[in-house]
Design goal:
alpha/beta; Carbamate kinase; eight-stranded mixed β-sheet; four-stranded mixed β-sheet; about 25% strand
């Protein structure tokens, strides 16, 4: 039976978040090769997502896009954030194409609408058709029209949250620079091997924010979203792990447990 997996390539992993508009092209090529290898050896239906890193987050912070879009200047900013997010997506798609991954980009702005930062509608016909055809749909953090805020930004985790409720994946994998969730961030001496709803209160105060510009929340926000989902979706497991370590993407797609595992108990 084919396993449905969501994989996010974090913005900190695929860009240098401390330098505006700087993709890590060698890293993207390596990640795409690992994905291709995993798909060739295991029956997976894969939804791939990626962050915006030093592309979308820079412009989004300048214009405050996530909080709302009302003025002509802010709408210009909305378009700029879209442009930068889609520019990074092109680098991702180029890497996947060169690695032989049969994939296609599905820009969230064209299918998703929101109200006060929450998805109210997403036409999933195209995404479902891509999965049924054995293709890899690729989504990413994007600008979204919002009936209350005018416009906003939804992160890849926001999108995964909605998709997970609709599609019921077995695993959600979040690959970034960090090797795990740390109980003493930023010192990084105390790795958290597993987080459950019952154990999160013990570590949440020191989990930490993100590396570089990030307008959609740091590590604590990611963990909270995954905890909500594992409580809601039977059998779901989430992992937060390093995509920087050689071979980690391929091995985790193959089923290896590394980094921090988030599950119901």
């Amino acid at each position: 039976m084919t396993e449905l997996v969501f994989l996010k390539l974090g913005g900190s992993l695929i860009t240098d978040k401390t330098l505006p508009y700087t993709p890590r092209l060698d890293k993207l090529a390596d990640l795409a090769s690992q994905i291709a290898a995993a798909l060739s050896t295991r029956q997976l239906s894969l939804v791939l997502g990626h962050g915006s890193g030093s592309f979308g987050h820079i412009a989004a912070k300048k214009y405050g896009t996530r909080q709302g879009v009302y003025t002509p200047e802010q709408w210009n900013g909305f378009a700029e954030v879209w442009y930068q997010a889609s520019a990074l997506n092109r680098f991702v798609m180029d890497a996947l194409h060169k690695a032989g991954v049969p994939s296609l980009a599905l820009a969230p702005v064209s299918a998703v609408t929101a109200r006060d930062g929450k998805i109210v509608h997403w036409n999933l016909a195209t995404l479902n058709a891509a999965l049924a055809a054995g293709l890899v749909p690729v989504i990413y953090g994007d600008t979204i029209f919002d009936s209350q805020r005018g416009g906003t930004i939804l992160s890849t985790e926001d999108l995964f949250e909605h998709l997970a409720r609709q599609l019921q994946p077995q695993r959600i994998l979040l690959a970034g620079l960090e090797g795990a969730v740390w109980a003493d961030f930023p010192e990084r001496r105390l790795r958290v091997e597993k987080i459950t709803p019952a154990s999160f209160d013990k570590v949440k105060a020191r989990v930490g924010a993100s590396h570089g510009a990030d307008v959609t929340g740091g590590m604590e926000s990611k963990v909270r979203q995954m905890l909500d989902l594992v409580q809601e979706i039977p059998g779901l497991t989430a992992q937060i792990f390093s995509g920087e370590q050689p071979g980690n993407i391929q091995s985790v797609l193959a089923g290896e447990l590394t980094g921090t595992v988030i599950q119901i108990q």
